[in-house]
Specification:
Layout: E1 13-14, E2 23-33, E3 39-49, E4 55-58, E5 63-69, E6 72-73, E7 79-81, E8 85-88, E9 94-103, E10 113-117, E11 120-124, E12 144-151, E13 156-159, E14 162-165, E15 168-175, E16 182-185, E17 188-195, E18 201-208, H1 217-234, E19 242-248, E20 255-256, E21 261-265, H2 278-293, E22 302-303, H3 309-327, H4 330-349, E23 361-362, H5 371-404, E24 408-409, H6 411-422, H7 431-434, E25 440-448, E26 451-459, E27 474-481, E28 487-496, E29 500-506, E30 512-515, E31 524-526, H8 531-540, H9 544-565, H10 571-581, H11 588-595, H12 600-609, H13 616-634, H14 638-644, H15 655-675, H16 678-686, H17 690-702, H18 708-716, H19 720-732, H20 736-747, H21 757-768, H22 772-775, H23 781-796, H24 798-804, H25 816-830, H26 836-846
Parallel strand pairs: 2-12, 18-19, 19-21, 22-24, 25-31
Antiparallel strand pairs: 1-23, 2-3, 3-9, 4-8, 5-6, 5-9, 7-8, 10-11, 11-16, 12-15, 13-16, 14-15, 17-18, 20-21, 25-26, 26-29, 27-28, 27-30
Helix pairs in contact: 1-2, 2-3, 3-4, 3-5, 4-5, 5-6, 8-9, 10-11, 10-13, 11-15, 12-13, 13-15, 14-15, 15-17, 16-17, 18-19, 19-20, 19-21, 20-21, 23-24, 23-25, 24-26, 25-26
Bound molecules: O-methyl-L-tyrosine and zinc ion (ZN).
Length: 847
């Protein structure tokens, strides 16, 4: 294997420096003769001058075989070739550039460009991978049509667009390089049909390795539902005669929206009841939809430059969340989305990696596929919709699709459509794209003499490179209940635009405030609401999100007070949780969410926010005690609850059954604290689906069952995706003092493939995210272990190494000893030759 040469160039690229290319490419004609070590890529680029200047093409790791313009080989004096560029001097106004390059896909372990996975050729070109295939203007504002011819002794040869002859593909839709894709291999398809609302017959294929055909049905179903939904809700129809999805085992991210040829991490396509959990099914549905929705938000209308990434990603995440909410329970989906946002994006926004939704500079764009760009980007779209209303949102989207189809756009283009369609000035709203950091909204209220007064104050915290921020426009949805729990004022949206706003009302009695309903803005609330009011909201709020939020606030408060003051767990809280758990009128999925306690990382951040240094070991222990207290309170009800949540009949991934299994999983965890694993063992032995099996497996691991790990392995050792779950669970559910050693031992196994990102993430992520008390072992062994692996991975797959390094980003929360250990590990890393990806991350984390 050839190591990826460390690229330490730390050139900073700025949004402000954007300039269009002087010479553009309008058509790309590619011929690829595939070979593991000597693939020949012949490219014919139709070029046209559009302004003054030299033409600089990108090209990395390419061996040049030939170079010609309009059929004439180019003399050495007319071009300059470097490791990363091909500069052409004195080109005509219109010409054909012909290059032949040689590359070695088999040696490409960075999984960017053209690479091989289990004998199959595949590509990943976003963001800047096309330059590893051939010389080209590898930037999103250069949009070209493509003809591709693939030569290989393999049965299936795929590229973008429509197949015009075996192995020959034509894509009529102009696209940037990052949407190019090619796949060649021994694959089998599950095929279906869809007829669009415009009457176009579309063949749908999901291509997998032979043997995996039995696991494609759910993804196909999700694809058809996505196509129909985008027509109905956004008026967007598909535009080619074929839509191909390919499942690949070695993939850096979740999936990729290449035009007409989506490539997926096999984890997000393949599912059967026996091998995938309910969570996997939900993720597959959401990701299939996400990639499909990109066909309009990303592909037909793309980004002018990579700073505009949120233009396609924030909008497409918002759309996939809307879709999932329509397919499933909307409140449960919203709670899940907010949990995810807080866990990943709030954490990012609170630390050294904080950046605006539209960053203004970067060294390596791959480091900006972040929770802020994706998830906060989606929240910004949600706020926009709230502010302009449903009709205004529909009108703005319609104008955007009509005006910008076929273009590479900016956030300014997007917002202008909403300003024009609705007449609303969005200049203050635009701050959401440029000011980093999670705004803090503090809420104070008073009641006296028949007057209720509500004051909201906002501040936006300092973040790296940004201080003294202006007030944002924050849509705060709120309503009032009376103390008996009846709603006295239904939801209204207050647009907080100033640093401080006060509302005053005449009311007969003191109300109970329900604020930030539906989590109407991605902000943190500072609000000392009384227990009584929270209990009222938990029992009665008409807004399901805030009903859950009230319970969450109570639980978090109990845990924090238990950690800082040793406060006992009181009956009022336990009774309230029990009441929700046993309320048959509520959706089981909601009850499961209400019973789940805040995560260890969430508690660590909350302690830090309160000025207390978090101790991961103490947090872990406190959370276990809280769980045991809930189990004690519910003890006599647990077996019945388990029975009530039975799902008779064969497994279906439907949300209603999944909700019951989710509640059963929480109940099983509670039961395990009481019976040492008896119920979990019975569930494990009797499970007929992976959801129940995994729920029981993790309980048994935590209970110290001596056999279950081997038993699971014996049954599933041939299944890569199932074994990823096993690797992760072994670490995440290990006793914290043993977690690092277990992780270390797992990486020494022959089936630990360091070139497979899923396997690597199972073990390293299982430790850093799944077992915080283990990762933060006071002896520093977790930090050492991660740093060692970052260095190893960086040599072959810099992108994955850089992503995993974010586990260190919250280091300044911790005590002086832990901080010293982490900064020493990071500083040692910094002293090594690192990739551009990892060195940018380490530098930013150290600050
Ligand atoms: N655009 C894809 C995600 C993606 C991004 C980068 C990749 O390689 C660096 C791969 C995939 C999406 O949003 O699904
Ligand atoms: Zn996306």
């Amino acid at each position: 294997m050839r190591d990826a040469a460390p690229d330490q160039s730390q050139t900073v690229i700025h949004l402000a420096d954007y300039a269009p290319v002087p010479v553009t490419v309008t058509h790309v004609d590619l011929h690829l003769r595939l070979d593991p070590l000597a693939t020949e890529v012949s490219a014919r680029l139709t070029c046209r001058r559009q302004g003054p200047g030299v033409m600089v093409l990108n090209g990395e790791g390419l061996d040049m075989v030939s170079l010609a313009i309009d059929g004439v080989p180019l003399e050495a004096s007319r071009y300059m070739l470097t490791d990363t560029t091909l500069t052409l001097h004195d080109v005509p106004d219109a010409f054909l550039l012909e290059t032949v390059a040689r590359i070695a896909p088999q040696e490409n372990k960075a999984l960017e460009g053209l690479y091989m996975s289990n004998g199959m050729y595949c590509t990943q070109c976003e963001a800047e991978g096309f330059r590893k295939i051939t010389w080209m203007l590898d930037r999103p504002d250069v949009m070209a049509t493509y003809d591709v011819e693939i030569e290989a002794d393999l049965p299936v040869l795929l590229s973008n667009g429509d197949e015009v002859a075996p192995g020959k593909w034509h894509d009529p839709w102009p696209k940037p390089t990052y949407l190019f894709a090619l796949v060649a291999g021994n694959l089998v398809a599950t095929t279906d049909q869809f007829t669009t609302c415009e009457g176009r017959a579309v063949t749908l294929n999901i291509w997998v390795r032979p043997g995996d055909e039995g696991r494609t049905a759910y993804a196909m179903d999700a694809l058809k539902r996505s196509m129909a939904w985008d027509e109905t809700v956004y008026g967007r129809a598909y535009d080619l005669s074929v839509f191909n999805i390919v499942a690949v085992d070695d993939f850096n991210m979740g999936a990729m929206e290449n035009k007409g040829l989506n490539i997926f991490n096999s984890k997000y396509v393949l599912a059967s009841p026996d091998t995938a959990t309910d969570t996997d099914f939900a993720l597959i549905e959401g990701i299939v939809a996400h990639e499909y929705f990109h066909n309009w938000t990303g592909n037909r209308i793309t980004c002018r430059d990579w700073f505009q990434l949120c233009l396609k990603e924030g909008l497409t995440v918002f759309r996939d969340q809307q879709f999932s909410a329509d397919m499933r329970s909307a409140p449960v989906q919203r709670i899940g989305d907010v949990l995810q946002l807080r866990a990943r994006q709030f954490r990012e926004d609170a630390g050294p990696l904080a950046h605006p939704v539209r960053p203004e500079s970067f060294v390596e764009i791959n480091n900006f596929y972040t929770a802020t760009v994706y998830e906060k980007g989606a929240e910004v779209i949600g706020m926009l919709r709230r502010l302009v209303g449903d009709a205004g949102y529909a009108a703005g989207c319609a104008l955007y699709f009509e005006r910008h189809d076929g273009q590479a756009c900016t956030i300014e283009d997007w917002l202008a459509c909403f300003e024009e369609a609705t007449g609303r000035d969005l200049s203050q709203f635009k701050l959401w794209y440029s000011q980093a950091g999670t705004p803090l909204v503090s809420v104070t209220e008073s009641y006296g003499d028949g007057t209720y007064r509500l004051t909201l104050r906002q501040t936006v915290p300092d973040t790296p490179g940004q201080t003294d921020k202006a007030p944002m426009v924050i849509p705060v949805a709120w309503g009032l209940l009376n103390t008996a729990g009846d709603e006295v004022r239904p939801t209204e949206v207050l647009e907080l635009t100033e640093a401080e706003t006060t509302l005053t009302f005449d009311l007969d009695a003191r109300p109970v405030l329900s604020v930030l309903r539906g989590f109407s803005a991605p902000v943190r609330l500072e609000y000392q609401q009384s227990d009584t009011d929270r209990l009222t909201l938990l029992a009665h709020d008409t807004d399901p999100f805030n009903r859950w939020e009230a319970g969450r606030a109570l639980s978090k408060d109990r845990l924090l007070r238990h950690i800082t003051e040793d406060a006992p767990f009181d009956a009022a809280w336990l009774d309230a949780l029990a009441a929700v758990a046993l309320n048959d009128g509520l959706d089981p999925a909601f009850r499961a969410l209400a019973l789940a306690l805040p995560s260890e990382d969430d508690l660590a951040q909350s302690l830090h926010d309160a000025g207390v240094v978090p101790d991961p070991t103490a947090i872990h222990a406190a959370r276990k005690r809280a769980f045991a207290a809930v189990a004690d309170r519910l003890a006599t009800d647990l077996p019945r609850l388990m029975d009530d949540m039975a799902t008779p009949g064969p497994y279906t991934p439907e949300a209603s059954d999944a909700g019951k299994r989710a509640l059963r999983a929480v109940v099983l965890r509670l039961l395990t604290t009481q019976d040492g694993g008896g119920a979990a063992r019975a569930t494990y032995d009797g499970a007929d689906n992976m959801t129940d099996r995994m729920a029981a497996f993790t309980c048994l691991l935590e209970a110290g069952d001596p056999n279950v790990a081997d038993q699971f392995e014996a049954q599933w050792s041939d299944d890569r995706l199932v074994m990823d779950k096993w690797f992760m669970a072994r670490v995440a559910h290990a006793e914290p003092t043993r977690a690092v050693q277990i992780a270390r031992d797992l990486t020494a196994r022959p089936d630990f493939d360091a070139n497979n990102p899923n396997r690597v993430r199972s073990v390293l992520g299982g430790l850093t995210a799944g077992n915080p008390a283990g990762f933060h072992n006071p002896d520093g062994s977790g930090y050492e272990f991660l740093a060692e692996w970052l260095l190893i991975l960086d040599k072959s797959n810099p992108q994955t190494a850089a992503r995993l390094s974010t586990a260190f980003d919250a280091w300044r929360r911790y005590d002086a000893d832990r901080q010293a250990l982490i900064s020493a590990a990071l500083t040692r890393l910094q002293g090594q030759p690192l990739s551009r990806d990892l060195s940018e991350m380490v530098g930013r984390i150290l600050g």
